[in-house]
């Protein structure tokens, strides 16, 4: 069975973009693949963060995974920092990562520009090496990636090939360096089209946890009236009818895409259903669809959060399973890189 790893950062409230772009797809993937879903808390400290909130946000994120339908009889759910091998492998990989590769990362350039010099820690630069460690430790076959993570996955692949080449032994080199000596070289799994959810207040920027205005996103745990209010007030336009793919109507495209993803319809179905509608007719439909989809998730979330022993158990079991795989890879890497066996 092919293996897949993926995770979300516990940096704020999980929103509709995280759900439609990542977590909802996991529910399908867990039926076909061996899956490991983790809460990437180590990544959450790459920018200034609130230490008092981190552990709470980590538990909440784990509960959201389960509430959305991640099934622990199929998938392993764990907290990244609970598997020590992530950080350890990162150090080993750092030694094989040319600094120029990291300087080229678009996300580093963008985030460091936004954060300002005093707030840019080394971890923001080396973030992709930790991400490579997250993936390579598990010998993952596929990694679901959105547009914004494609460059980081490419770096992971190059790093895997480089380590395989440098330390993979003579046989590996003779084979020409392709294949999977120390690390399997992972492939990207591109999510279904339309899975990039945009802000409710600006159809050209993505819906994001870190956007200052809460009005710009639907959080998975938003109560009904908040969802209704956000949709009522979201940005629209004054063109007649509703349509996909008109570059002058990014908000329209986004709201129709959300409706399509939430209702599980095809683009053609939604285009036909909504072409003659105005915002006053469409918005209540969208609100109801969102509330219908999110309400059961919220009910399950409350149930899970009320049984903290259960959540603890899930995370311990997940970390144990993950550690077994990760430690085997890590020991192999230490050996290949010439360290004295412990
Ligand atoms: N707007 C989005 N549309 C579709 N998918 C999205 N993802 C995030 N935003 C959207 C996907 O969610 C997964 C987890 O993301 P992350 O926690 O690593 O954070 P991120 O990608 O940096 O996005 P956020 O949630 O908006 O956080 P901030 O504001 O901190 O940047 C990933 O699979 C991502 O593609």
UniProtKB/TrEMBL annotation:
Keyword Chloroplast: no
EC number(s) recorded for this UniProt protein: 6.1.1.2
Keyword terms of this UniProt record: Aminoacyl-tRNA synthetase, ATP-binding, Ligase, Nucleotide-binding, Protein biosynthesis
GO biological process: post-embryonic development; reproductive structure development; tryptophanyl-tRNA aminoacylation
Localization terms from the record: Mitochondrion
Record bears the keyword Ribosomal protein: no
Broad EC category: ligase
Any GO CC annotation of this UniProt entry: chloroplast
Catalytic reaction list: tRNA(Trp) + L-tryptophan + ATP = L-tryptophyl-tRNA(Trp) + AMP + diphosphate + H(+)
A GO molecular-function descriptor: tryptophan-tRNA ligase activity
Coiled coil: none
Region forming the signal peptide: none
Annotated family: Belongs to the class-I aminoacyl-tRNA synthetase family.
Protein name: tryptophan--tRNA ligase
Source organism per UniProt: Tetracentron sinense
Taxonomy of the source species: Eukaryota, Viridiplantae, Streptophyta, Embryophyta, Tracheophyta
């Amino acid at each position: 069975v092919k293996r897949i790893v993926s995770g979300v950062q516990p940096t704020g409230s999980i929103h509709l973009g995280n759900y439609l772009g990542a977590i909802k797809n996991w529910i399908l993937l867990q039926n076909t693949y061996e899956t490991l879903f983790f809460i990437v808390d180590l990544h959450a400290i790459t920018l200034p963060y609130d230490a008092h909130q981190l552990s709470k946000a980590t538990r909440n994120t784990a509960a959201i995974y389960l509430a959305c339908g991640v099934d622990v009889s199929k998938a392993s759910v764990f907290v990244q920092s609970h598997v020590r091998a992530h950080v350890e492998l990162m150090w080993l990989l750092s030694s094989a990562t040319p600094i120029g590769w990291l300087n080229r990362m678009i996300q580093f350039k963008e985030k460091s520009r936004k954060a300002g010099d005093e707030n840019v820690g080394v971890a923001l630069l080396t973030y992709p090496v930790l991400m490579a460690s997250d993936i390579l430790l598990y010998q993952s076959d596929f990694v679901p990636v959105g547009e914004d993570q494609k460059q980081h996955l490419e770096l992971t692949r190059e790093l895997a090939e480089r380590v395989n080449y440098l330390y993979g032994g003579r046989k590996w080199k003779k084979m020409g360096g392709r294949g999977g000596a120390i690390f399997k070289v992972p492939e990207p799994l591109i999510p279904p089209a339309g899975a990039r959810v945009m802000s409710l207040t600006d159809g050209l920027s993505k819906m994001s946890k870190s956007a200052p205005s809460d009005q710009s996103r639907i959080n998975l745990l938003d109560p009904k009236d908040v969802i209704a209010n956000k949709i009522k007030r979201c940005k629209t336009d004054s063109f007649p009818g509703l349509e996909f793919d008109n570059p002058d109507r990014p908000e329209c495209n986004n709201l129709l895409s959300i409706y399509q993803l939430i209702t599980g319809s095809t683009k053609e179905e939604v285009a036909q259903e909504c072409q003659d509608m105005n915002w006053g007719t469409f918005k209540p439909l969208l609100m109801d669809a969102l509330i219908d989809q999110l309400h059961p998730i919220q009910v399950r979330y409350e149930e899970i959060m009320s049984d903290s022993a259960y959540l603890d158990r899930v995370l311990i079991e997940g970390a144990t399973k993950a550690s077994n795989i990760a430690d085997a890879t890590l020991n192999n890497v230490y050996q290949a890189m010439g360290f004295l066996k412990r």
